[in-house]
Amino acid sequence: GQNIDQPTEMTATEGAIVQINCTYQTSGFNGLFWYQQHAGEAPTFLSYNVLDGLEEKGRFSSFLSRSKGYSYLLLKELQMKDSASYLCAVKDSNYQLIWGAGTKLIIKP
Amino acid sequence: ETGVTQTPRHLVMGMTNKKSLKCEQHLGHNAMYWYKQSAKKPLELMFVYSLEERVENNSVPSRFSPECPNSSHLFLHLHTLQPEDSALYLCASSQDWTGGSYEQYFGPGTRLTVT
After folding, report:
1. CB pairs under 8 A, 24+ apart, for B45-54?
2. Are B45 and A97 in contact (CB under 8 A)?
3. Contact with chain B for residue A86, Cβ under 8 A
4. Residues near B39 by beta carbon (within 8 Å), at least 6 away in sequence
5. Is the minimum CB–CB distance between A100 and chain B shorter than 8 Å?
6. B45 vs A96: CB contact, 8 Å cut-off?
7. Is A47 on the interface with B (CB under 8 A)?
8. Is A67 near chain B, with CB under 8 Å?
9. Which of A41, B64, B102, B110 has the lowest tally of Cβ within 10 angstroms?
10. Interchain CB distance below 8 Å, B106 and A42
11. Chain segment A47-80, per-residue pLDDT in tens
């Protein structure tokens, strides 16, 4: 079967750095997405990786290793508004997005 | 209106009712999706439409019936639902459903409670 694993919850301090990991086992691979979802709101797109390596976008970076079936989302200089759930999703060989259950990130002052 | 809109935002219905959820995208996209989101569970893809044609139906019970009259509008018709169908129903759109890099844009969702 297809599976995406990510931690259920993480806690970090304002101003710090946090890394949210995602491992996947899917039928084929056509890219990996990270989305942010604030409570009661729609998911919003953060990043897309299809090649190995690090993609940086401001305070957020996303890393991919296809051989290991592994990705992480790195958030720097954490702000209180970064408190949200972070969803990892992989597009499989049928171009369907397979989603993880999300990581709830709690930022403390 | 911009992005993806959904109505209603909240819906309470009995198990014998019939109701419909509406989604509209103002992005000129060719693909639209219905997802179910339950607490602490991954998003479940229900239906995919590409250029008004259904391309995926992930073993969804027949009490959920989608309709896509044009590339901007998507409906989800509900009838004789069960309490376990209570969830957040999200609509999304993307430029194309097969393109690897095309991200999906989500609406705010309809919070459905079945009593």
Report:
1. B45/A96, B45/A97, B46/B76, B47/B76, B48/A96, B48/B97, B49/B74, B50/B96, B50/B97, B50/B98
2. yes
3. no
4. none
5. yes
6. yes
7. no
8. no
9. A41
10. yes
11. 999 999 999 999 999 999 999 999 999 999 999 9
Residue A96 touches partner B, C-beta closer than 8 Å: yes
Q: Write the residue in A42, A94, A101 that is nearest to B40 by C-beta.
A: A101
Q: Is B82 exposed, middle or buried (0-12, 13-18, 19+ CB in 10 A)?
A: exposed
Alpha helices in B23-78 (DSSP H): none
Chain B residues touching residue A97 (CB < 8 angstroms) = 43, 45, 104
| Burial track B40-63 (b if 16+ CB lie within 10 A, e otherwise) | eebbebbbbbbeeeeebeeebeee
pLDDT by residue (tens digit) across B16-56? 889 999 999 999 999 999 999 998 899 999 999 998 888 87
Percent of chain A with pLDDT over 70: 100
What would the two tokens of residue A85 be?
Answer: 């759930």
For residue B17, what are its two tokens? 């009712």
Locate A76 and state its tokens.
Answer: 């720097």
Q: Nearest Cα to A76, choosing from A87, A60, A100, A93? A: A60
Residue B37 to chain A, least CA–CA distance (Å): 10
Q: Which of A90, A98, A99 is the best mutation test for B, with the most CBs of B within 10 A?
A: A99
**What distances in angstroms separate CA A99 from CA A12, A92, B37, B43, one per listed residue?**
24, 11, 11, 6
Half-sphere exposure of residue B12, counting CA atoms within 13 Å on the CB side?
1
**Joined tokens for residue B105:** 């844009």
